[in-house]
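Meet the record:
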Amino acid sequence: MKKFLIIFLCIFSFGCQKINKTVSKDISLNLNGEEEITLNYDEKYVEPGFMAFDLDGNNVNDLVKVSGKVLNKPGEYTITYELSLSSKSIKKIRKVNVLMADFKDNASFIPVLMYHYFYDDLEGESGSDANYLAKSKFEEQLKYLKDNNYYFPSMKELNDYIDGKIKLPSKSIILTMDDGAESNYRIAYPLALKYEIPIVWFVVTSWTDPNLEYQQEIINSGYVSMESHTHNMHRAGCSTNHGGIFQCILKDLALNDLITSKNILKTATSLAYPFGDYNEFTKEVLKEAGYNLAFTTEWGVVKPGMDKYALPRVRISAGMSLEDFINSIN
């Protein structure tokens, strides 16, 4: 009966074409190019783009929220595209894999810089001790690194470099910041974006929540990676070294703390010892918890074959001139 009714309408109202078009409409979001892209280290990522349409077929590309960033350094990156409209939502993901470079030369050492806190001297702020670095000095240092074409290895690259598995350029350097203070986000992070220099934050996960919106913003930028400063062992409790409790806490408690921090951060593979305190016990527990690298506060540069659970760093302090900075990393 339904079939005859449709034929009747076609004959007497010439409406067949109309009837065929009365299908339900929906919003759409389609990615241009491939959903999985592989690049060599020296290739720059060019965003292929996307096409988004509303219920009426109008282009709404400007309403698509794009998050994630691809750096010209080895690693796997994710670009997320989201369209929410008319109580409907679509999400698409593009994977970008930047292959590890095959460097011809090999650095004889890698300076791993250690920062703590920052203050905005341009706005009249001041630091309370040598761990506070002026914004103007930090920017001066970043500009020097950028202008002189330094390479910024990831923690995985550093791990493989120590093991002798890969080579790294002679001008290689890593910037780390302990504690995850507010000034890291307010001062250091915008400058890292400006100069396109990745930085590593060693955060105490009981002090901060990486799942907060502003924390996710910095992680998705591609210029900040969060590593562990323990979950809740940045406190005193021992009689050795600076008194860091990690050296003498019960093994089960230490292991649980490290695994908790790792689970919260999701991608952490390295740790900075609170107060720089470590011993054979801390190394053993870190290995058991699945960490690959651990950093102290001892002065020095990282070299192939070093103990990966007692790595030195170069402390950057308030009184450093640019000349001092250059000398310290060379």
Remarks:
- The longest strand covers residues 75-85.
- The domain at 22-98 is CATH 2.60.40.10 (Immunoglobulin-like).
- Residues 1-24 have pLDDT under 50 and may be disordered.
